[in-house]
């Protein structure tokens, strides 16, 4: 055995080209205890790589080299086998998780309680609650309407009460008044304008719709005429009206429809005729704004009470 045989330890002739696998034609050593060619590759002398030259193609790989390059195929198969194992483990874990989830869902007390009859009962309770809420809403809306109507009613009642109070104040002589009417002037001898004829004139005017009246004397003294006003001939001439003495001529200011009031004074045998027969004179003058400003003190009732 040559020196080259002993250095390689193969007992086979060393190929002339470096890097060529041991054995004839690139075949492995048939001996069972022969070392692997990969283990022997470090012992092989490595020649320095020749520098690349332009235009010189690299030598093609020999069949033995291709066979040696296909050696890592078992490693890829091992990697694929490991990936499949991992996928199998993940699938197993996923299946276990699904089984546990199904068991948890089936044993959930909240979901177990929602049976068909329970769902029907819950739906009925919700319907009842909705009806009660709707009834509460309707009651509140009705209360709101009543409050609004009550406020409107109170406002209307207040306005009506104010209007009635004004009317009663005018009729009672406690409030001044203004409006269309007549200014009736009585003048003549004392016999022609005595208390009886002045009272007849007041009664005729009141019957014709007079709403407010006052009488004034020659000196400007005025007295408000109301339902309880009285007229008396004063000694020595003149009139006493509600305790106050007036001298003629007299002017009665009356608020009402002027045409109706004048007709009432001029009826045959009425006030104008009787005064003229006694030598006096009655002169009515229409006015769109007759003022009745004299006030009467409020009358305190001692016996009359309103009927409840």
Give the secondary structure arrangement, pairings included.
Layout: H1 3-8, H2 37-40, H3 63-69, H4 73-106, H5 109-113, H6 116-172, E1 177-187, H7 195-207, E2 212-216, E3 222-225, E4 231-233, E5 239-241, E6 244-246, E7 250-255, H8 258-265, H9 271-277, E8 281-292
Antiparallel strand pairs: 1-7, 1-8, 2-3, 2-7, 4-5, 5-6
Primary descriptors:
single chain; 308 residues; alpha+beta; 5-stranded antiparallel β-sheet; 3-stranded antiparallel β-sheet; 9 helices; 15% strand; rod-shaped; disordered N terminus
Number of helices: 9
Anisotropy-based shape: rod-shaped
SS class: alpha+beta
Beta strand count: 8
Poorly predicted spans: 1-27, 37-73
Biggest sheet strand line-up: 3-2-7-1-8
**Amount of beta strand:** 15-25%
**Roughly how many Å is the radius of gyration?**
68 Å
The helix fraction, in percent, is 40-55%
Biggest sheet, in brief? Answer: 5 strands, antiparallel
SSE pattern: HHHHHHEHEEEEEEHHE
What is the residue-mean pLDDT, rounded to a whole number? 75
N- and C-termini, Cα separation: 156 Å
In short:
Helix content is 46%, strand content 15%. The chain has 308 residues and is an alpha+beta fold.
Explained architecture:
- This protein is an alpha+beta fold.
- Helix content is 46%, strand content 15%.
- It is built from 9 helices and 8 strands.
- It has helices at 3-8, 37-40, 63-69, 73-106, 109-113, 116-172, 195-207, 258-265, 271-277; strands spanning 177-187, 212-216, 222-225, 231-233, 239-241, 244-246, 250-255, 281-292.
- A 5-stranded antiparallel sheet has the order 3-2-7-1-8. A 3-stranded antiparallel sheet has the order 4-5-6, with helices on one face.
- Strand 5 (239-241) and strand 6 (244-246) form a beta hairpin.
- The N and C termini lie far apart (156 Å).
- The model is unreliable at 1-27 and 37-73 (pLDDT under 50).
């Amino acid at each position: 055995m040559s020196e080259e045989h002993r250095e390689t330890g193969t007992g086979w002739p060393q190929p002339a080209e470096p890097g060529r696998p041991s054995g004839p034609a690139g075949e492995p050593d048939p001996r069972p205890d022969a070392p692997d060619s990969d283990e022997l590759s470090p012992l092989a002398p490595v020649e320095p790589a020749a520098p690349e030259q332009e235009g010189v193609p690299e030598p093609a790989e020999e069949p033995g080299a291709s066979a040696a390059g296909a050696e890592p195929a078992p490693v890829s198969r091992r990697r694929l086998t490991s990936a499949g194992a991992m996928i199998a483990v993940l699938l197993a874990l996923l299946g276990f998780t699904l089984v546990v989830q199904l068991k948890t869902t089936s044993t959930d007390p909240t979901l177990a309680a929602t049976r068909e009859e329970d769902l029907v009962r819950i739906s009925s309770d919700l319907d009842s609650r909705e009806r009660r809420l709707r009834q509460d809403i309707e009651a509140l809306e009705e209360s709101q309407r009543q409050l609004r109507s009550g406020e409107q009613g109170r406002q209307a009642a207040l306005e009506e009460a104010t209007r009635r109070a004004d009317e009663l104040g005018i009729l009672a002589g406690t409030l001044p008044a203004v409006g269309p009417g007549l200014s009736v002037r009585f003048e003549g001898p004392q016999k022609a304008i005595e208390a009886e004829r002045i009272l007849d004139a007041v009664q005729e005017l009141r019957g014709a719709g007079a709403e407010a009246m006052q009488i004034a004397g020659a000196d400007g003294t005025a007295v408000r005429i109301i339902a309880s006003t009285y007229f008396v001939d004063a000694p020595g001439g003149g009139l006493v009206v509600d305790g106050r003495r007036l001298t003629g001529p007299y002017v009665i200011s009356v608020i009402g429809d002027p045409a109706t009031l004048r007709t009432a004074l001029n009826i045959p045998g009425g006030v104008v005729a009787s005064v003229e027969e006694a030598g006096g004179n009655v002169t009515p003058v229409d006015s769109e704004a007759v003022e009745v400003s004299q006030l009467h003190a409020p009358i305190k009732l001692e016996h009359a009470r309103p009927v409840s």
